[in-house]
Specification:
Layout lengths: L3 H11 L11 H10 L4 H10 L17 H12 L3 H21 L2 H12 L4 E4 L14 E6 L2 E12 L6 E7 L9 E7 L8 E6 L10 E12 L3 E2 L5 H36 L12 H30 L5 H26 L12 H12 L2 H12 L3 H7 L34 H14 L11 H23 L6 H4 L2 H26 L5 H4 L2 H14 L8 H17 L12
Parallel strand pairs: 1-4, 2-4
Antiparallel strand pairs: 2-3, 3-7, 4-5, 5-8, 6-7
Length: about 575
Amino acid sequence: MIEGDRITRLEKAFGPLFSADNPMGQHGLLAADARGEVLAEAERVLDEFGFNAEFVPAELDGRLTRLDELGRVLRPVFRRDASLGFGYGLSCFFAAVPVWAGGDGGQRALAARLLLEGRRIAVVRHEVAHGNAFVREEFAAEPKAGGFVLNGTKSVIANARTAGGLVVFARTGGEVPGRAHSVLLLDREALPEAAVEYLGRHDTTGMRSVEFGGIRVTDCPVPGSALVGGLGEGYELSLRSSLVIRGLIPSIVLAGGDTALRTVARFATRRRADGRSSLDVQHVKDVLTGAFLDLLVSDCLSLVATRALHLLPKQMSAYAATAAYLAPKLVAEAMEEMSAVLGEETFAEDGAYAMFRKQLRDLPVTSLGHAGSAGRQVSILPQLPFFARHAWFADPEAPPALFRLEGDLPPLSLADAALLGDGDPLAATLVACTDQLENGGLLSDAGPDGPALRFLARAFTIELDDLRKAFTRIALDDRKAMVSPHAFGQADRYTLVLAAAACLGVWREQRDGEDDFLADPSWVTAALYRLGRRLGLPLPDRPSGTEQRVLAEVLARLHGRRSLDLYGSALA
């Protein structure tokens, strides 16, 4: 079971975000952000909590046993300050995942020791075509007797100055495509001091408190024992690590979206001198409702992506990529709509509503920007012609445990995750839910949401069939067709179909649960309507009654101090 008590303990340790009396509230966080510093009091909370243990596998004396649990533990931190969450621990996890996935016993022990001692590990990525400053430049390691000689410069590395360990994706040569890079794990203290030069801090617009800096390494000897996996396995390790990392991205972006929506809801519900509020305007109601639905959809994707690593490791690659691709888009568009409600307060750097601007600045960095988005689409596309021929409308549906908020999971094994899926059980869940709805197995005809939900589920199933026909026409080896704008557009449509499937699966598993809101079909009906509108599907009449029930939940959680995700967790 997920250790909710541990998550609650961390939330309470930070105290109420919007309290003027809390030194770790928004005023303290915003002041530190303006200085380009992480709030010292907040770092002490994470020190006392042993936050880095969350990123270390349990067999190495850490707490990491489940990816869905890790996503939830991150949320109390990222609701407050993405710089704190990323700089303190998550960037270290990103660095350590290749070691957990491919390292030997000694390498895994070194990475675990550094993290459990409260130190940092930095990752030096290889160059990516069309990448931004976070992924340009690279290192080269020339094989020598007994090891390597490392050279290179990279100007933007999280924790470059303070990291005790470096995970370096270095070019090691080779003519075989995809085998030119290798991964090296370096103990900073064991390197010759003169060989590593810190190049100074690089300022960023978002996550201003994270120390992004540069390093130059010159003729640095590296022992052969630093090689993680085999020579030339860097690209594969990078891809395999991304399967783990991508599943966490929805949690961190929706945590920021939670704070943004809470800020805007506070603004919208304040009473003016005449007794009225912004909430009297229908457009404002629509924006709050839509933003909440986007957070719920993102969390459904997060749940599926993280639990699939345990339950469906051979099929989860498309789900992790979809979650990491779509959730940041949904949250970014919702925040753009919310900014219109805030008006000039959107630009406030301090005051009651200034947390919105901070979250707006941080979002592009937490979602890893343009290069990350394109890479996720590219990892989805090659799988779709295969799914069209062999999986869609043929696979068995996903196991019910994939959609449950609680419940035991098989042990986490990073080695089992496949880079390309051999099936699409999540799409099969969409088909199964549609059949159940039409056969009266999930809703009776008397239910107010029944006709609309049945119509919407069928519309998404028809869209899946249209995608099947489109990708069946593309040969499995037709690379030109697979990189066409049309194919990318179809892949985008596929991610929205998967989002609808995830929402239906989560709702179906919550119908008999303790949460009355999640058991009610209102939220899933409204979510599918919003997704269908993005797709341009033929839609039924707008479910206004359903949306009113969703808005009521937003306000209830605002006043009841509960999180705006699937869990509705108590806030400090």
